[in-house]
Design goal:
The complex is a heterodimer. In chain A, a hairpin with a 2-residue loop joins strand 9 and strand 10. Chain A is α/β, with parallel strands linked by helices. Chain B folds into two domains: about 230 residues, Rossmann fold (3-Layer(aba) Sandwich); about 140 residues, Rossmann fold (3-Layer(aba) Sandwich). Chain B has a seven-stranded mixed beta sheet with strand order 3-2-4-5-7-6-13, with helices on both faces. A seven-stranded mixed beta sheet of chain B has the order 10-12-11-14-15-16-17, sandwiched between helices. In chain B, helix 1 runs parallel beside helix 7. Chain B is globular and about 65 Å long. Classes of the chains: A alpha/beta, B alpha/beta. At the A-B interface, strand 1, strand 2, helix 3 and helix 5 of A face strand 3, helix 3, helix 5 and strand 9 of B. Strand 2 of chain A pairs parallel with strand 9 of chain B, so a sheet runs across the interface.
Chain lengths: ~300, ~400
């Protein structure tokens, strides 16, 4: 029998208020399985503000602190400083923020936290738009995707600009550890979190996080869409430790990106030329990643 | 107790050090810089065993303090002008989270145009954030007030952040003799922070959270009630401080020769020192004039102002900033406090000293003269070229 590698204890309770099929909810669950109960999590304005349920309840089995949307990086620096000043040991400090709160309005505080080498984990769950405010584009929304601010109508074909490369931005700060994870691959996810947990210094996770209402697909397809994203190379799984790349999932030849696009309403307007353009980019990015891994 | 000659900024730094702050975070801005440079020295030399988090903005500085405070640390930051404006969102967070952060503010005008001079536009823009606000007149008062602010902010019945303001350059960069209390004395006045009711590692709880209208109002009301408890708590704290140091700064309002005065100027910060000399001169000439210095602006000492109105027929409020479309902020507050009281003296508002323009004895004298002469326009800008622009305010 295969050995179960994911810890059984749950630090996120069933009584949360995420939509059915919400990958950001799954992501928190897996993150806390990897980190354990000695964790304080700081959460900015995002879907997770609501998912955790209103006062006086909480869906988490750990201590949670709210912070404004743009200051998660500073918040975890403050938590670590207090823990050090008060002699609180063996404490994981986690910032858990959306792509808007990280790659856009929170980028400055993230950069500050990385640069001053805060001993904490920053996790960005990437549902590729501002979901909490009703699916507006973010810098992390991919090229061509429909959102309420990148409409699809006469002449407009969804977002006209490509997605911001948050891993590239983070890696330019030379963090101790940075990895991409995807709840569709939970063993890989938790293994990376457990690895990061025992390292000291700034650590970063880029979490792939499908959102059924925002991406316009049926809520029972989250895991399948996540798998397709990785298997077609749109969201490759890798980790970077002290500058060394390691691709943690190589499932043979990449699947065509059309398989990923087909499953989601937000891409349904894309024609064969649009898909071909993305395919060329994804293939080139994948090859570049393999070269980085080989050090060539 | 040792007597040292120091700037208002160093008075902030030494007070934070004496308070044994545990987490400091700040971003530089003129004229606040020497506060945090001194603290950086004290931390680097080991004299102050604190964590100093060097951040990339004031916004992050305040977030560091709020989050560190949530885990139970005693925190300090300092800023000025634009930096304080950038913190605005976080100021609401600190108060709403009941984080007893103490902050030094060097009052400086706000841009545009860029200007480094003293005025109160920066802190007045923050008066609705739920912070306790002190305005100091001397470097000694700065040091003493920072220590008192920690006791007040961390009082279990209050738990609100507090800012201690000092006028740019007039205090921040001016050397004055300051009596520095011994550490043992400060320790007996200000015990370590009671870390109860904060986030505990390993315990499922959420600080901040979100609510519907059913509970939100109660949270706001709690902040309001905590504010209401400040004046009484401050009086007790000052008593304790006085018994240890012999120094007393007057509680929420400090009066100067106001007991039998027929005209009183309400002042804030360093202009008060100038005004004291004018009062003495005018008294010598037989004019019954006096001062009421607002040491506390938030909560606003309405009770004291009503009491003042019982004894005096003419009140002039001196504001070192102007609220566009209205009047000076202090004047508006004084008027509001008086309306619901039984006594309605003649009220004038004098705008002076904006952008660091000097407030001279002549200005103060002119204010008293106008006040004694009768009812003038409600808002008068005192230091424009003659004749002074007078703005009717209805
Ligand atoms: C300063 C500020 N601006 C705007 C908002 C409104 N707001 C709340 S959540 C949110 C979107 C967050 O998007 P993201 O970080 O991607 O998280 P998601 O909602 O997708 O979970 C915005 C814009 C805010 N809370 N604060
Ligand atoms: S909108 Fe999307 S991210 Fe937000 S709770 Fe629903 S599924 Fe999750």
């Amino acid at each position: 029998m295969a050995k179960l590698t994911i810890p059984a204890p749950e630090l996120m309770r069933a009584g949360h208020s995420a939509c059915p099929g919400c990958a950001p909810a799954l992501a928190m669950r897996l993150m806390l399985k990897g980190l354990g109960p000695r964790t304080v999590v700081s959460v900015p304005a995002c879907c997770w503000t609501v998912i955790d349920t209103p006062y006086p309840t909480t869906a988490l089995g750990v201590a949670m602190l709210d912070n404004p949307i743009e200051s998660t990086g500073a918040s975890i620096s403050g938590l670590r400083a207090a823990a050090d000043a008060l002699g609180i040991q063996d404490l994981n400090i986690l910032g858990f923020a959306g792509d808007g709160g990280t790659a856009d309005i929170g980028l400055q505080a993230l950069s500050g936290m990385l640069e001053r080498r805060t001993d904490a984990i920053y996790a960005m769950y990437d549902n590729e738009a501002y979901m909490n405010t009703g699916v507006q584009r973010s810098g992390s929304t991919p090229l061509g995707a429909w959102t309420t601010t990148t409409p699809v109508e006469d002449g407009a074909r969804g977002k006209a600009e490509p997605k911001k490369d948050i891993m590239g931005i983070v890696l330019a700060h030379r963090p101790v550890y940075a990895a991409t994870v995807n709840p569709s691959f939970p063993e890989d996810f938790v293994r990376k979190v457990e690895k990061a947990r025992v390292l000291r210094g700034p650590r970063f996770f880029h979490i792939f996080a499908p959102c059924p209402p925002g991406w316009r697909y049926a809520s029972d397809r989250t895991i399948e869409i996540g798998k397709r994203a990785t298997d077609c190379g749109i969201f490759p799984l890798y980790e970077v430790e002290e500058g060394r790349y390691h691709v943690t999932r190589k499932g043979g030849a990449l699947r065509p990106v059309s398989e990923y696009f087909q499953a989601q309403g937000r891409f349904s307007h894309l024609g064969p030329e649009d898909v071909a353009r993305v395919q060329a980019q994804v293939t080139a990015d994948w090859e570049r990643l393999l070269r980085l891994e080989n050090g060539t | 107790m040792t007597l040292k000659v120091m700037s208002g900024n160093y008075a902030q730094s030494y007070a934070a050090c004496l308070a044994r702050v545990q987490v400091i975070s700040a971003y530089p801005i003129t004229p606040q810089t020497s506060i945090v440079e001194k603290l950086a020295d004290l931390v680097a030399s080991g004299e102050l065993p604190a964590q100093f988090v060097k951040v990339e903005s004031e916004h992050s500085a305040m977030q560091v303090c709020v989050s560190a405070s949530a885990l139970g640390a005693r925190t300090y930051t300092a800023t000025s002008s634009q930096g304080l404006l950038l913190m605005h969102e976080l100021l609401h967070w600190a108060a709403g989270m009941r984080a007893p952060v103490v902050m030094g503010v060097v009052n400086r005008s706000v841009a545009p145009p860029w200007s480094l001079g003293a005025d109160h536009a920066d802190t007045m823009s923050q008066r609705d954030t739920g912070w306790i606000q002190f305005y100091a007149e001397s470097n000694q008062e700065v040091l003493d007030t920072v220590l008192q602010a920690y006791r007040l902010a961390e009082d279990p019945a209050i738990r609100l952040p507090a800012m201690v303001s000092e006028d740019a350059f007039y205090l921040s960069h001016t050397l004055e003799p300051v009596e520095v209390p011994d550490q043992s004395l400060v320790d007996s006045f200000l015990p370590a922070r009671d870390a109860r009711a904060v986030l505990v590692p390993g315990v499922a709880a959420r600080l901040g959270s979100f609510t519907g209208p059913q509970q939100y109002v109660e949270f706001r009301r709690e902040v309001a009630k905590a504010m209401e408890r400040v004046p009484e708590a401050l009086r007790q704290i000052e008593k304790d401080y006085q018994s240890l140091t012999g120094r007393f700064h007057g509680g929420p309002v400090e009066y100067y020769r106001a007991g039998d005065a027929e005209a009183v100027l309400v002042t804030m910060g360093t202009m008060t020192t100038t005004a004291r000399t004018v009062v003495d001169e005018m008294r010598a000439e037989g004019h019954r004039v006096g001062l009421a210095k607002l040491r506390l602006f938030r909560p606003f000492p309405a009770t004291e102002i009503r009491e003042l109105a019982r004894r005096t027929d003419r009140i002039g409020v001196v504001d070192r900033s102007f609220t566009f479309g209205a009047a000076g902020a202090a004047a508006t507050e004084v008027a509001a406090a008086l309306y619901s009281g039984p006594h309605h003296p003649v009220l004038s508002n004098f705008i002076v000293g904006i952008g660091g323009r000097e407030v001279t004895p002549n200005h103060i004298h002119a204010m008293f003269d106008r006040l004694l002469a009768g009812k003038g326009p409600e808002v008068q800008w005192m230091d424009l070229p003659l004749p002074p622009e007078e703005v009717a305010h209805g």
